[in-house]
Write a structure and sequence with these properties.
Strand content: 25-35%
Strand order of the largest sheet: 6-9-12-15-18-21-23-24
Helix content: 10-25%
Largest sheet: 8 strands, mixed
Number of helices: 4
Oligomer: single chain
Number of strands: 24
Radius of gyration: 17 Å
Length: about 220
């Protein structure tokens, strides 16, 4: 369910399994597109609030369906809840899957470019036309959204969402549970603490050492 030698082991575990998406909203639909392009079999969606189907795939049930079927050996799971601010829901679902010893998929779109020298963590989604360049390290349960760029030697912490068209330049370090908004630009070598939200279109020119929401050019903390 992913390309590249650094993900070979998880691919072997998940490759013969059908994919179950956990969360049936808009991000789920983007993930379904990516899975279809990669010709990955899809079992359906787990979401207590979804309708009868999501893009034609059945809603299998609520979160209790996972507990019942995780040991079947037939399914790989992917957190498909999006992030617009807090990563708490994605983190909670991911950690629950880990406690259950579930097979967690990593999904890389067929149109994304991931260097064979980069690392993409368990449960991460790399969507259409995103680029992850050499020696970059993307943590677990991240979203690298459409047309985002992760440049060489950058580090992206677990549960972080790099949104559409965001530019993460070389040697940047981003902490866990961050949200980097659409079109944001992070200057080479900048370090960003855990739990930071960078607003859409912001330009970050200096280190951010405390959680909060940062907006504008140059980015400043909202009061």
């Amino acid at each position: 369910m992913a390309a590249g030698p650094n993900r070979q082991h998880s691919e072997q575990r998940a490759g013969a399994m059908r994919l179950v998406f956990v969360g049936g909203g808009g991000h789920c639909r983007s993930c379904i597109d990516a899975a279809e392009r990669a010709q990955i079999g899809i079992a359906g969606v787990v979401d207590p609030d979804a309708r009868a189907d999501v893009l034609g795939y059945p809603v299998l049930g609520d979160d209790t369906w996972i507990d019942t079927h995780v040991s079947d050996g037939e399914f790989a799971f992917l957190v498909s809840v999006g992030t617009t601010g807090s990563a708490a829901i994605r983190r909670r679902i991911f950690e629950h899957l880990r406690r259950l010893n579930a097979t967690i998929a990593t999904l890389v779109s067929a149109t994304a470019v991931v260097s064979r020298h980069a690392t993409v963590g368990e449960g991460t989604v790399v969507l259409e036309r995103a680029v992850v360049n050499a020696n970059a390290r993307v943590g677990a349960n991240c979203i690298i959204n459409t047309a985002a760029l992760i440049e060489h030697d950058a580090r992206i912490g677990d549960h972080t969402h790099v949104s559409t068209g965001a530019l993460i330049n070389g040697n940047v370090v981003i902490g866990q549970g961050c949200m980097i908004g659409s079109g944001a630009v992070i200057r080479h070598g900048v370090r960003i603490a855990d739990g930071v939200v960078v607003g859409a279109g912001a330009t970050v020119l200096a280190d951010i050492d405390a959680a909060g929401t940062w907006v504008g050019t140059p980015a400043r903390r909202m009061k």
